[in-house]
Write a structure and sequence with these properties.
The structure is a homodimer of 212-residue chains. Chain A has 212 residues and is α/β, with parallel strands linked by helices. Chain A contains eight helices and six strands, in the order ααααβββαβαβαβα. In chain A, β3, α5 and β4 form a beta-alpha-beta unit.
């Protein structure tokens, strides 16, 4: 009963404007009503200009966002900075789920090819099929650009494996090398704490010591 | 060094619009760059109308927010719903730090008087002195409205006690009863796990069993 009261705590707002702002914040993932109220009350302590900058930045992004015509990464022009970079290798394409992975791989500094952002992963449970992803445009790129290698860099989950397999089948008719990123024990991890499947894969996919 | 890379992960954004939105989100308390990116990418999956509603709700709140002329609670009019409710006792005022506490006390359903929102608590470490709070207007209310009782409902912290004492000194010249909310063992808590100070206070402030 006392727990019930604390749930009710945020049910009465003294102002409709306040209630609207809290409800809008609470629609974001991972933000409940209590956090939303905290963020809204913080906004009231900021200057009107600061709050306006915040709202406008988000509205502008949503209204003016562009996706690269080649790789479907977010960008400000027709073609993104990576695709238009002539120093990069245009014949190797790394297939990723979302722009977060592009940023992560870019920050390793280990990849100088181009990307292809699927915009998701095949997940029947979430109602996402191959048609919802940028797979057809990937096939077109392979067909038109005579690519040498496609690197599949999707999550090591059932959905990732399904998507890998679907893309592999779609591309198997073309003369392109298809690889996936290596799965193995993380750098810095101790062998005894690695999970069995990862450790097993890292043994199966062992590489020549001189090449490592 | 590898940790360093993961910190860098969010340093390169493919779009200026995206970067602006992430930076604005990351200015909110408790939201880092990674969470900000997650929230911004979620916003891109919403309709432009939904994102606009979110931004506008916050901007409208900030620009049009009103504070009650009497109790300084947030409200939509000159006087808030609580202060203008004629069924409530206008001679008993509960002094609280912020509107969150008003909402919490309202939801207990145990208080039928009015409120006075200080807008903070005396905290020299944060540079907040009595002049930054709505204490003078509280003194005026006591003076003009011939109040019967002031209930101090501030946090049981050093800052709360300091503020209580400051208000007590300011009001001691007036013929008004000054009380503080009871400190004691929480309902549902076991005695053996209560902290010593709380348990000590709850013994000192014991009440007649028949009155409980």
């Amino acid at each position: 009963m006392y727990k019930y009261y604390s749930l009710l705590m945020i049910s009465k707002y003294p102002s409709v404007l306040l209630e609207n702002a809290v409800n809008e914040f609470a629609k974001l993932p991972g933000i409940g009503k209590k956090t939303a109220l905290r963020l809204v009350l913080h906004s009231l302590k900021r200057t009107p200009e600061e709050v306006e900058n915040f709202g406008i930045a988000l509205i502008n992004l949503r209204n003016e966002v562009n996706y690269c015509k080649m790789c479907h990464n977010i960008c400000d022009n027709e073609i993104c900075n990576i695709c238009s970079d002539s120093t990069r290798d245009p014949l190797t394409i790394c297939v990723v789920e979302n722009i977060k992975e592009v940023m992560a791989i870019e920050n390793t500094g280990q990849f100088r090819g181009l990307y292809h952002v699927l915009g998701g992963i095949i997940s029947p449970m979430d109602g996402i099929g191959p048609g919802d992803l940028q797979i057809d445009s990937l096939v077109k790129r392979v067909q038109n650009d005579k690519l040498l290698e496609i690197i599949l860099a999707l999550s090591a989950t059932i959905e990732g494996d399904t998507t890998n397999f679907y893309i592999y089948r779609k591309l198997s008719a073309f003369d392109v090398k298809i690889t996936t990123i290596a799965r193995g024990v993380s750098v810095g991890d101790e062998i005894e704490y690695a999970d069995e499947i990862t450790l097993g894969r890292s043994i199966l996919n062992r590489i020549d010591f001189k090449a490592s």
